[in-house]
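User: Teach me something about this protein's shape.
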Amino acid sequence: MAKRASGVRLSELLVALSLATDLGFGQPAEHMARAARIALRIGERLGLDAADLATLYDVAILTYVGCPTYGNEAATVFGDDIDFRADALRIDLAGMPARRFMMSRADGVKQKLTLMATNGRGVVEQMASHCAAAGELATRLGLNDDVRAGVQQAYARWDGKGVPADLEGAALSLGARIAHIAEACEVFSRTDGVDGAVAMVKARQGTHFDPQLTQTVVVDPDALFKGIDEDTVDEVLDAEPVARPPLADEQLDDALATIGDFCDLRHPCFTGHSRGVAELVAAACDALHVPAAEARVARRAASVHDVGRFGVPAQIWTKPGPLTSHEQERMRMHAYYVERIFSRPEPLRRVGLLAGTHHERTDGSGYHRGTSGALLSVPARVLAAADAFHAMTQPRPYRPARTPEDAAAELRRDARDGRLDPAAVDAVLAAAGQTTSRARSGGPAGLTAREADVLALLTKGMANKAIARELSISPKTVGNHIERIYTKLGVSNRAAAAMRAMQYGLVQA
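Assistant: First, the predicted structure itself:
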């Protein structure tokens, strides 16, 4: 039996990842996509064949993708790791210029002394770990060994003064050599114009850059950069040298889980969070009889819900005390960023929109949209509960890990106070092996026995007063039951409730 196509190409997923890299570098959106277009133009000037261009394509999009990982280490030395990377893009990171730059950005006397004593060895080791993480990501996404080598050489240099230290000259992969030039050219052509980019390339030829490759920029640079900022994403997707078929559903599931694992490297305390939340969401959706297609989107969203963390400085994630109002605003942006990263094509857009709701609350007190009530779907309610529970069971810089029992008690309080959906909370706690509310457990889609009775009569077209007479309760009580039914079923009207009830097998059609 043929596997079902997901409607998402691997190149579309790589471009989404490049947007996360842009955030981690403090660069305008589509910076890496523009750099990839420049790289391909250089490759074409060199007369590369389709296979080499295909490798260059992947390397150029993913170059520096590993840099925002372990941001806590960079934050310890340089404070705001995103601002540090943004400024570092304009520096030739070797020798005295690199040392002067790092000293100027060190966040305190102790950090400056450490840099002087170790000659920046710790920073070099950080770079090596970033490159190793990027290489592992490339492999797990199914990219070939040449692509893995290219992204692992993100900080290698032609003169051998980069990372790895024993790599120099033509021993560097061609994809990496071209990508390094293209990425720097994107920054300088945008900020200093074409002449500034050419001057930078000439200054770095034979040190950072392969001197032969620099000639492809120096000769007719205007043509190389012409229209590079127009329709960037469409152009870079259309420019894929070798067409790859859409990923199968299972391949996309695995790829998104891989991306979630990778982005949890933002700080060691996040390790395993995305995968843990995804498992809770999958089990809870099953318990609530969420349709298979919606449940799949929910698991995918859970896998990548925190990818937006790459766009928030690590010093915020590592802060041991309360955040200032400014820091809180920056932290809240990560829920928006995940929507931006996964904004296209349509199958990824659905994932991104749902992923962006993981901090919403049913009473409207959440973020980033402040959505509430029936506007939050059942999967969104489940994702919010699963994320909250799993996060509480992990340590954070500002608190130790809570026991599963304490986390469960907190979740129940949030349900009682109207911040989280009771049915979603029960389903998540059951998935986590915790005791659930007896009043709500066991019923299909999280409905109580009384709510199921009300729904059965509602689907028959009975008015609230008629239902009240049938069940010997007040019309106001019926109205309250219906509101909760709508919430649990993720619907907003009687017709939709009837359709959902039949779909779940709650009543006879």
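Now, about its shape. The longest helix spans residues 174-204. Residues 438-442 have pLDDT under 50 and may be disordered. If you'd like, I can walk through any region in more detail.
User: That's plenty for now, thanks!
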